[in-house]
Amino acid sequence: MAISQNDIDALDAAIASGAKSVMFDGRTLVYQSTAEMIAARDHAARVLNGSLQNRGPRLFRFGFTTHRGD
Predict the structure, then answer these.
(1) Domain limits at 36?
(2) 52 band by pLDDT with thresholds 50, 70 and 90
């Protein structure tokens, strides 16, 4: 299961409401403490941000040299 921004938003909402469980793709995860939920949220954010940064360059430049033989 890939981590998405929706997963992070669900964790944020659960943390804000004081709930200890979060539903992801039809599965419910129950955390033992708010600190555990915050750690999971931080980990998910690092994974998501890391995957966005490893996409490589977005701009390519090519130099062309031609030799006509004139």
Answers:
(1) 5-51
(2) low
